[in-house]
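Everyone, study these two lines:
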Amino acid sequence: MASSDAPFQLKDLLTPATIRLHVAASDPGQVIHEAGQLLLVSGAIEERYIEAMQQALQTYGPYMVIVPGVALLHARPSDGVKRPCMSLLTLEPPVSFGNEDNDPVKIAIAFGAVDRQKHLEALTMLTQLLANEQALSAIQASTSAEEVMHIIAAASPA
């Protein structure tokens, strides 16, 4: 794990234990629950962080669907984040979040940061990944968490 002052990489946040492929979810709430559970089981968040992500969706609507096919699930650091973390789900079938421009969601990424600086670093790294349509297609087609990790490492700047 990177030291607290060094910028971390996506590979420092995502692990095979926080990746699930081909998840069947009935609605956005279940997507948030599934992605949040991976972070909870890893010890990175408190249960209330999942509730805060659910509340953010209810309060602000489907703004979390930031590019076609991808939802970025998150809440504030003060909502129960213990350490920087990330989980990734591929959804099969895709799930509609109610975002007219970017639905349906095929990949859901939940992340938690401990402070504003780490939050912005994580968003910057994610933005680079989300701009890479080839990497997103490869992640969606992946058959193992290790394969997803390899795709992300290859797509991330050194």
In short: The chain has one domain: 10-155.
